[in-house]
Amino acid sequence: MIMCETNNMIQIDWDLDSGNLVLDFANTAEFHASEQPDERLNSYADLVSWAAAAGIISRQVVKALLSSSKENPKRAKKALQDALELREIIYSIFSALADDNPPRQKDLAEFNKFLSRSLNHARVMDAEETYTWGWDNMEASLDSLVWPVARETANLLTSPDMKRVGECADDRGCGFLFIDTSRNHSRRWCSMESCGNRAKAQRHYQKASKKSASPKLDS
Ligand SMILES: [Zn+2]
Questions:
Q1: Distance 27 CA to ligand 1 centre (A)
Q2: How confident is the model at residue 1 (pLDDT cuts 50, 70, 90)?
Q3: Ligand 1 centre distance from Cα of residue 176 (Å)
Q4: Which of 4, 80, 128, 198 is such that its CA lies 20 to 30 A from the CA of 72?
Q5: Cα 184 to ligand 1 centroid, rounded to whole Å
Q6: How far is the CA of 70 from the centre of ligand 1 (A)?
Q7: Distance from Cα 20 to the centre of ligand 1, integer Å
Q8: pLDDT by residue (tens digit) across 74-88?
Q9: Is 177 helix (H, G, I), strand (E, B) or coil?
Q10: 140 alpha carbon to ligand 1 midpoint, in Å?
Q11: What is the largest CA-CA distance in the chain?
């Protein structure tokens, strides 16, 4: 992870390679399927940094939210907690789907609460002779970062890509979620370079130790 500080915001090199914004958000806890996930969103500023890198907020909103979070640290802390709660619901839903299981009803019900609160702020905006989906005054609400995430979650759940959500099969609990774009839905790892290679090396080691443990025929 690369970090450097510019414009009052910690710039973190976020992993945005899952193929979907919502899964990128779920992946902000590394080793998500393990007993002790590695939390990447440790402050409200981290959440802003992620949202900026993911392209869901403008520079103007970044500036406004960072300064407002400094003035209202308690509200910023609550907004971070709520965002993490939404993230865990998202992880739970898509991890189940990746495993070909239906998500828990409780998760869907909780998610729908986030969705309805978020869509309260949805607006249709002017966009040079046409119109586009937008949000009402994101600068003014510390919890505005989750609005687009909630809407994208609903979009993913109702799109054909829902059936392509996969989770890294790593046995340590990597838990990385991704959109599997392979033709026969055969992708198993977050990447071949990390968990894929480790599993390959492990299989190789197991094969080798099995061979050396078997009795020699000529003895
Ligand atoms: Zn992995």
A1: 11
A2: very low
A3: 6
A4: 4
A5: 20
A6: 35
A7: 16
A8: 999 999 999 999 999
A9: strand
A10: 37
A11: 86
Distance CA 116, CA 159 (A): 19
The pLDDT, as a whole number, for residue 216 is 54
Average pLDDT over residues 94-98: 98
d(CA 62, CA 7): 10
Give domain status of residue 166, yes or no.
yes
pLDDT over 70 (residue 10): no
- Strands 165-167 and 131-135: what pairing? unpaired
- Distance, in Å, from the CA atom of 91 to the CA atom of 102, rounded to the nearest integer, reads 13
Q: Is residue 125 part of a domain?
A: yes
Beta-ladder partners of 165: 179
Structure token digits, residue 95: 């991890």
Answer for the pair 210, 68: CB distance below 8 angstroms, yes or no: no
Residue 113 domain-assigned (yes or no): yes
Note the Cα 13 to chain centre separation in Å. 14
Alpha-carbon distances, residue 183 vs 97, 115, 157 (angstroms): 18, 32, 20
Instruction: Tell me the CATH number at 85.
Output: 1.10.3300.10
218 found inside a domain: no
In whole numbers, what is the pLDDT of the chain averaged over residues?
92
Residue 143 class from Cβ within 10 Å (0-12 exposed, 13-18 middle, 19+ buried)?
Answer: buried
Q: How many domains does the chain have?
A: 1
Give ∠ CA 30-35-40 in degrees, rounded to 5: 25
Q: Which domain holds residue 75?
A: 3-213
Q: How many CB atoms lie under 10 A from the CB of residue 160?
A: 6
194 Cα to the center of ligand 1, angstroms: 7
